[in-house]
Amino acid sequence: MQFSKASSLLLIALLGISAIAQAQAPRPAGPWFGVQPPPQFGSEAAVIVGARTPREANFGAAAPPEFLGATIKKDVATIVEFSRASQASREFGSGQLWGRVSGFPSSAKTIEWAVAQLRAAGIADTKIQPFKQESRASFWIPLSWEVRLLGDGAFGAGTTDVVLESALPVTASDIAAGKLTAPLVYVGAAHPSVLKHIDVKGKIAVQLIVPQGHMVFERSTVRSRTQDLFKRGAIAVLNLVRLPGNERSTDFGNCGGPCFNLGGRDGQFIETVFDRAAQLGLDDKLRAQLTLKTETRTGLQAQNGVAVIPGSKSAETIVIDAHADAWFDGAGDNADGLAVMLALARHFAKPEHRPERTLVFVVSAGHHSPGLNGPRNFVGANAELAKQAVLVVNIEHVAQRNFSPAREVGADGYRHAVADSGEAPIVFGVTNGAPFLDDLAQQGVARFGVNFISDKSTMQSGETGGFSDVKAAKITIMQAPPLYHTTGEVLEVISTPGLERMARFLAFFIAEATKAPREKINP
Ligand SMILES: [Zn+2]
User: Fold this and answer.
1) Is the pLDDT of residue 6 over 70?
2) Which of the ends of the chain has fewer CB neighbours closer than 10 A, N or C?
3) CA distance to 141, 219, 330, 472, per residue, from 404 (Å)
4) pTM of the model as a whole
């Protein structure tokens, strides 16, 4: 065969390009293509909390002692300790999951402690109201599990299995016989336009989820895309949840098969390994072994705590609710809200602060455990108090610090998140949009420095849903920062002055609402 001069030159050029490409292709350099392994679970905080504290809550006059940030923070720490005890005692299986979980001792103890605080504040009418799990409901609980990337000598000398410790199975995932091993396939954000080019049959699909703010915003998209992956033949799905740190996260349930969420650092490791493997044509050798033990509980029992401060002029009620249940430490969801509510109860229990309307404080069983809804059971067991309500105030996630991506990137390419000196944005949802209530919120920003979002909102979320039978204005005061429902939401990310700001604002707000004409609250 003869080559023309031109085609010979072309061939040489192509060979040259190929030689350069080969020279540039990364060779396996050490275990796992030389990719730095993810940090051990729990070995570093999800976000950097520097020495600069949030700006002080300074209103000219000193806070009453019950509203001092440090005092409220102590209660937050105590509430978090109930979760830590759940972890230490392995309340659930291996101890990989913990919290203050309704239907279990960790929640019961938290509520008993909170009610003891209300009693100690001098509120005579204080009780614990037990209730049973709805008969049709069941509670799926993961007991122990493992996501293990299987090592292969082709990935570099010394490659051994890597256990991704941030893994957490999402609700109702189950693996037949408790174990499966399969090849991995990376599907990016699992858009249908991408999946039409990828064969996921018989494989564990690895899906990237980049929360726009927090996991709640992604719920419906992730659910439909994951179910699509199973329809296309995937046998399991790993969700790489790109959140700060290497945290376990609970969300994205009912995905249609065995699904595990993975934290940011573990996710970055897998993605980098996939890229290196793909460059060497080894990506089809990546495999994982998943194991999972679960149980499903029915017939559980939970309780609410209820304390009533009778009004000096009216039997009409203002119901103030904070849920006591939590996944993991739950310092923001909702230890801070519960601690702020206890501070308010101590304040209004003092004779000099006696309200005109009756105040009802609900230490709620919460809404995480299926069939054990705190607010719904409160309304059922206290029909008269609920009927007399002119306003419901749900204090839910209120004092977590704000953080954003750091300027610096680590040697492994990971960008940390760092706290700033304020609190994360707080939605102030007013179901009926009453101008009087929105105006009080605006005064909260101006006088107390609470970081409410600038737009008015009729949002009702979390606990507020359980009050649907109460025909009155409902306020939802809620942050939903990135770490919520993850193991990263620890005591250190709670703003001490933020607790004080919120407690003082709410004392003002509730005092105004106790004496406002009914038609201003419910126009
Ligand atoms: Zn919550």
Assistant:
1) no
2) N
3) 32, 22, 20, 37
4) 0.93
